[in-house]
Amino acid sequence: MSPEDPRAVEVEAANAAFYETLERGDAAAMDELWLLDDGVSCVHPGWPVLSGRGEVLRSYALIMAHTEYIQFFLTDVRAQVAGDTAVVTCTENILSGGPAESAGELGPLVGQHAVATNVFRRTPDGWRLWSHHGSPVLMEDPDHAADDAGPAPDDDEAAGR
Question: What SUPFAM superfamilies does the record tag this protein with (predicted)?
């Protein structure tokens, strides 16, 4: 799908709004972004599958309440639209801050990467999230993973001989 496709542009805007809402910690706006359907689902990196609108929105409320600072820099954003359904994949480059040691200060900043698949459905009110799946990135480039690990042990080394 070409980036000029108005549907793809709309979906990418809805995807950006999702991350901006999370950055602001706006639970009411987050509620507006999800389908009014109990079939929604979410997988946060390292979490089990969350099913149902209440459970999903509760997870975001908890994340927003316990995160001092979070900012997403999205890269590799790709939107595909088929009828009333759209899939957006992207890399989440995340900068977050933990609890501060003293009042009025920001805690230490931590950077991390995750890849995400966000599925949207078109409604009369616009594109709404149906599913979010985030997964941590454990290696930067799978083509070079073997190079980083060093030479493979021979059979004698692997057997401890």
Answer: NTF2-like
Our count of domains for the chain comes to 1
Strand ranges for 32-108 from DSSP E: 41-43, 50-51, 69-82, 85-97
Continuous segment of H or E residues that includes residue 111 = strand 109-123
What sign does the dihedral 8-9-10-11 (CA atoms) show?
positive
Residue 1 lies in a domain: no
Tens-place pLDDT, residues 121-153: 999 999 999 999 999 988 766 564 444 444 444
pLDDT tops 80 at residue 33 = yes
- 21 lies in which domain range? 6-158
- Count of CB atoms within 10 A of residue 29's CB? 14
pLDDT digits (tens, 9 = 90+) for 75-129: 999 999 999 999 999 999 999 986 667 776 667 788 899 999 999 999 999 999 9
For residues 129 and 120, what is the distance between their CA atoms, to the nearest angstrom? Answer: 4
Spatial separation of the C-alpha atoms in residues 30 and 54, rounded to whole Å: 12
